[in-house]
Amino acid sequence: MQESSRDTFKQERTVAFIVARLGSSRLPGKQFRKIGRKMLLEWLLEELRRCRQVDKIVLATSAEPENGPLLSWSDKQGISTYSYPGGVNHVTTRLRRAAEKFSAEICVLVSGDCPLIHAPAIDQLVSSLKCHPEADFVAAKPDSQGHPPALQGISVARIKTWQRADDLSDRPALKEHHFPILHQRPDLFTCHRIALQKDLYAPFHHRYSIDTWADLEFHNVVHNTLAASGSTYSLPAVVNLLRQDQSLVSINSHVHQKGVGEIDRKVLMVVDAGEKYGYGHLMRSRELALQITERLGWSVTFLVTDLEATNSLEAVGLRVLPKDKDATDRSASLPMYNGKNPVELLGLSAPGNTAWLASYDLVILDLNCQNNLPPGWRQRLPESSRVVIIDRLDDWTREADLVIIPGVTGQVPDSQSADGKPEILAGRDYVILRREISRLTDRKIPKNIDLLTYLHHEWQRDIIKKFSAATDLTVHIIEGQRPDFHYLMARSRVFLSGFGVSFYEALALGTYPVTWAFSAAHCRDARCFYRQTGLREIVVPTDAKQDELSRVINQALVEKTGQVIEDGTSNIVRKINSLLKQPCA
Fold first, then answer.
1. Which of 6, 35, 512, 581 is least enclosed by beta carbons within 10 angstroms?
2. What is the C-alpha to C-alpha distance for residues 570 and 578, in angstroms, rounded to an integer?
3. pLDDT value at position 329?
4. Alpha helices (H) in 179-278, listed in sequence order
5. Could you say which DSSP state residue 394 is in?
6. Does residue 553 carry a pLDDT above 50?
7. Packing angle between helix 159-168 and helix 91-101, nearest 10 degrees?
């Protein structure tokens, strides 16, 4: 029997159900994120409409208020919707009810976070199921060499199969996924397996769903690479591209695929972020949060009080607690900020309501040196919460479970408290390099900027401007946050700033870091950095004038870094994962 003709087998009504919610724990609103110039859902729907074997398309979501934009989008696209009024994690029941409402006989499950579906392959799967009435569902099999199919986020089954599978999904872990019981109980369901077209197979497995920011980055890179060569963004084209350049898979190969029944952890990251504390600290915290999300599958929520920091975090899909008492967050309801700093809002510096913190398994504090907590602050946290502190070694930090110094300047004490807490990690292995920096380390970018400066004080910038006017050197002065900071750093020979996170980024990119110290303590940290990295110490005195500055810059221009600095964020993430596996004291 020919499976390619609709006239040779029973005409079973086939409905495709796009499964989508906007409340993703790892990348909220991902369905409306863009790949190239189109939203994820637009790519998916465009391809789904090419299917000849699909009679109707339905978006199946949950009846949460936040999913309203999905319903509006579906209405504009002219496709039907189904809003399930039950539990948001009852995915199998949601799909079953949708299939029953729209009288589907053959059901095509389309994951709303997988843009690279392929219409001809879907048609082939549907046609095959129609030709095999004895089968409950159909699936693609490996090719003759055992290579896995690249088609993901698609499954095709009969409605009776969905109904029986939902009845048998009697545990939350089975209900919240896409009918895992079909594969867990092969004795109860009959599967017919077929081979897909050859260009949908690759000699390696790679995930194409979009669950994290790294996944979205992967899709945009392959889209832009294909567009530059005149190719279309499609599953066969992407598979062929990855055959030619397997290095592209490293963009999101570290992303953890959450399994059935896996424990969902929630993290609260409290950060002093803003101009006074420095852009580098915000980027450091952002990178750590992204890698916790990507490598462990945990959701991370930030508590910050700076609008620019909030926008930067939300731009990469990280959650930020609401600023207004009327805003809604499932885990907490906070008062209005009223100019308070994050520690005050957290409720640990003075008696206050900390009950809302019970929903978080882990609290990470990245605070500036002006924010200290009083003795006994840990007692205001729930007993089950673990605490990690970034880049602080003070008396109050001894109440934490783990202190991480992401660099070489941490003065780790010779002895710890009697119970061995907190554990302290410090050194090169724990340097946090944001991905924008790491991805430039292997590129040969011309050094066409002699001096890049990032200075907080206006009087410092005035001196640099006078220096720039009096020299033939190419000088670039950064004021405020710059999204292209990483690229400017890669192009620079010398970087002048107060000592901080960016010095490690400079080393990673072969740029010589020069310190313009703020204070004696600041100067001590900088000198420790030069000593531990083996660099020649170049520190500009706090009250330096233009002549002295000129001498120091010219000295730095002839120096070479000769250093290799790699991102150690994955080491921190592994330690955090290990920490949460330990029983509470």
1. 581
2. 12
3. 43
4. 181-184, 213-228, 235-244
5. S
6. yes
7. 150
E strand or H helix that includes residue 388: strand 386-390
Mean pLDDT score, 488-511: 95
| Angle between helices 307-315 and 279-296 in degrees, nearest 10 | 30
513 CB neighbour count, 10 Å cutoff: 26
pLDDT tens digits for range 89-137? 899 999 999 999 999 999 999 999 999 999 999 999 999 999 999 999 9
What does the block give as tokens for 113? 């976070």
CB 501 within 8 A of CB 287: no
Burial per residue of 350-373, b for 16 or more beta-carbon CB atoms within 10 angstroms, e otherwise: eeeebebbeebbbbbbbbbeebeb
User: What torsion, rounded to 10 degrees, do the Cα atoms 12, 15, 16, 22 define?
Assistant: -160
Amino acid identity, residue 561? Answer: T
Residues 475, 479, 484: CA angle, nearest 5 degrees: 75
- Give the ranges where 410-519 is alpha helix by DSSP (H): 435-438, 458-469, 485-490, 502-508
> What helix, strand, coil percent values describe the chain, rounded to 5?
40, 15, 45
Pick the closest to residue 109 from 3, 235, 10, 209 (CA basis): 209
Q: Are strands 154-158 and 106-111 parallel, antiparallel or unpaired?
A: antiparallel
At residue 483, the 3 state secondary structure works out as coil
Q: How many whole angstroms separate alpha carbon 429 and alpha carbon 532?
A: 13
Phi/psi of residue 499, nearest 5 degrees: -60, 135
What's the CA gap between 285 and 364, in Å, rounded? 9
CA separation, residue 283 to residues 286, 381, 404, 501, 543 (Å): 5, 26, 16, 9, 29
User: DSSP 3-state assignment of 267?
Assistant: strand
CA pair distance 272, 341, nearest whole angstrom: 8
Q: Which residue has the tokens 């907080």?
A: 456
Task: Give me 487's structure tokens.
Answer: 């690229």
- Is residue 518 a contact partner of residue 546, using CB atoms and an 8 Å limit? no
- Report which residue type is found at 273: A
In this structure, the dihedral spanned by the alpha carbons of residues 119, 123, 129 and 131, taken in order and rounded to 10 degrees, is: -170
- Cross-sheet strand order for the sheet of 475-478: 475-478, 449-454, 492-497, 512-516, 539-540
Distances in Å between the Cα of 523 and the Cα atoms of 277, 391, 547 are: 17, 17, 20
pTM of the model: 0.91
Distance (Å, whole) CA 389 – CA 382: 17
Determine the Cα–Cα distance for residues 383 and 467; give it in Å rounded to an integer: 56
Q: Which of 273, 280, 266 lies closest to 342 in space, CA to CA?
A: 273
Q: Give the separation between CA 558 and CA 169, rounded to whole angstroms.
A: 68
Kindly give the pairing relationship between strand 38-39 and strand 34-35.
antiparallel
Higher local confidence (pLDDT), 381 or 150: 150
SS3 526: helix
Name beta bridge partners: 405.
Answer: 426
